[in-house]
Write a structure and sequence with these properties.
This protein is mainly α. Helices cover about 30% and strands about 0% of the residues.
């Protein structure tokens, strides 16, 4: 069974959103503790603005041409 199956089907909650899921995966798979969000994690616009600044804890995120397993993406429902 692929490791991702443990995360499929987990319900979204205001206190367990996409960033929380990414934190859990990175902790379990990479032993990496991501910082808490310093903005409204439920707002796509706020996320884009935070990551677009490339400052502070967001400075280590980079756009890649070829995604690999465990890369993160920003998505929204229109």
């Amino acid at each position: 069974m692929h490791w991702v199956n443990a995360y499929i089907g987990q319900a979204w909650r205001p206190d367990y959103h996409c960033w929380s899921l990414l934190q859990a995966v990175y902790q379990a798979r990479l032993n990496l503790c991501l910082p808490p969000m310093q903005y409204d994690a439920n707002s796509l616009l706020a996320a884009i603005r935070a990551f677009g600044t490339q400052q502070g804890e967001y400075a280590y995120w980079q756009q890649v041409d070829t995604p690999q397993e465990l890369d993160a993406v920003v998505m929204a429902v229109a």
